[in-house]
Each structure stands twice: as structure tokens, then as C-alpha cells.
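Sample entry copied in:
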Amino acid sequence: MDRAQKEKVVEELGQIFESSGVVVVAHYAGLTVAEMQDLRAQMREAGGAVRVAKNRLAKIALEGTPNEVIGDLLNGMTVLAYSEDPVAAAKVVDAYAKENDKLVILGGAMGGTALDVDGVKAVAKMPSRDELIAQIASMLAAPASNIAGSIGAPASNIAGILSTIEDRASA
């Protein structure tokens, strides 16, 4: 890799660190190519990506950023998982690490905050952006359905009473 290529990689990594809602750093020693492709596919499906880069270049890209402290995690065979959704990458990596003990979470960063292993797992347990939107939408719709049920209830009560009176009259 020549100098121009390295500069391009550093620039790309810098963009990843700046634009991602969450970046998770993990060791992947022992993962087969098929397992790594599976991880990439799961991450792509969740709206994130996986990147393997030279640790030295990633540390250069981190210099001067709020997440510079995660540079200490970049030792050995590391992989970067990232997503714009602040929870997606953490969820996928945490789930994959539970299935496959060859993927070991080291930590990560969310916004300007460095995360340890427990921090990444805590972020993974949070609802995703889409789940939060669905919860808010259901909360907004609930009062309307309650009002409709309340308005319709007296009419159904009257219909039930009239039905009972009719049944008694015919008997």
C-alpha cells in the first residue's frame, strides 16, 4: 500500500468515526471467511457496516477526535463495526458475539463517549431508532382508539339492552 492509498484509508476511517452513531471495536481472530461474511451481511441488514483496517491507520484517523481514547483498543486483529443508528452496530455485534466466541468485543464509542465492553452491551439492549418511532406512534394512536371505543360503547350497550328486551317479549 503506497502513501496515497494510506491517506485515502485514513480519510475514510476519519469519516466513519465522525459520521457514525456508534463504533464497536472487537477482536476477530479465528473467524473464518464465511463467518466474517455472515457478520457483514447481518450488519448490512441492520443498516451498518464492518471494516477491517490497519490499527496504525485507524489510530491516525482517531487523532484529534473526541473518540481518540478508543485508540488504545486497537491492538491485534481488530474489526470496526459501525452504523449511523446509535444502537444497530452494537446490537448486531453483541448478538453475533453471543453466538460465536471467536468475536470478542473490546469496547467502542458512541458520539463523543468511549464505551467499555459493558457499555457496548448496555447500548445493545436499548431500543433502536425504528423501535422508538414505533413506540411513539403507538402511544399517539392509543388515545384516539380509546376515545373511539368510549364513543361506541354506549351504542353497543343500548343495542344489547334492546336485544334483551326483544328476546323477553318473544318468549
